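Kindly review this protein for my students:
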Amino acid sequence: MVPALPSDRMQGWVSDDAAESEAAQQRLRTAIRTNRWIIAALVVAVASPLFIHYTGFKPAKELSGLTYPKIFKYSYRTTPGRAPHHGIDFSQIWLSAGRLSAGQPVYHPVDKAKWRRRWSSTYHPVIHWLYVPLGRVAFPTALVVHNLAGIGLLLLVSALALRRAGCTQAIPSVLVAILAAMYLTPVGLFHLERGQLDVFVAASIVCVVTAFVRGGSAWAIAAGAISMLKVQAWIFVGFFWLVAAALWGLRDRNVWWVPATILGLNLIFLYQVIDWVPSFLYVANNTSYFGPTFTRILPRWFAFGLPFVSTALVGVCAYAALAARGQLADTDARRQLLARISFPFAAALTLQTVCGTPVTHDYRLIALLGLLPVLATWCARGEGVPAWLRRASCIGFGLMLMFALRVAPLTTLSFLNVAQLLLAFSLLFLLATLTLAVRRGTTSA
């Protein structure tokens, strides 16, 4: 028997490797298809009964059974001229969209006694133009479509961001967590009952973080465009952009798509933006302290300035760490540092920008849901992040969501207690950010 030559054995090995590789690729394709079916089944299983339920949904009835601070004040406030339907915050968008399509003005200076979202809007003109088609349909239908569209957009950008990061296995759990937070928690129901827009703030958070951690002009444009739907998102987007753009590289034209999109859309609607500004400022200057705002704990000027201080601290620490290692000109090192601090920095900024105003209605905390895909990506792809910190961040963020969304039995917590807890979490996330900023970028299991 003639022994096989080494080249013959090597050819056999190559053939075997090729066969195994093809089999592995086939298994991967099968797993991806299966994962897509699982995602579709979960979304349909969860969303379909909720959609059927919500077409006749009375969130006020659900909320009235909870011992929830002052919720009755809002849960029984029906839309003027649309009783017994709720959605009072959405009503100003719907009524204004109808007026806009009829060629009537939307923004007017009004007396406070008459101003209750009957006809004078405080929202940016972009959303009114976008909602013109909804202004032509019945209010209950428009409210349902509005709520489902907002949740659908957040689910879509979350799934795409996770896929962009190669974290497809996390998609089902993140989407189910978002749906559960919206439909099964008091704050989620509160958001639906008011017909609010903070799901758009959450979606803009997903987009802007993905734009700078994973790259892509489409994500940057989406971040700028979605932030126009509720301009409170500009605060987070602006602060995050300052640090992220400096680390990513100002010479990269993709970083400028975020401010360029916001500026461009404002210029397109310039005349209506000029009319909108006094209406928006009227609300800002005629508000009382309400909700889990940090101004219950801190002086007003300090609560307003907290995001400035946090952003400056992170920027200085990042600069000092890169300079000490001689990596200021190293694009890869800067971008790795940005990826390393992405989640804790975004979490700290979200809490500080949402809770830093005198009026922080609980539904604004829905913006925190935009951090779920950011956390999943950071845990799976973040380099140089210690394993203990990843586990601690997951546990801490989960506990924070329970407090923020008032998961039972936490519905009885006072606004002051919730504000204290959220402030503590924001400072802990800031501390984690500063620690990771000065940490050398080595991969950790």
User: Anything to note?
Assistant: Residues 6-54 form the longest helix (49 residues).
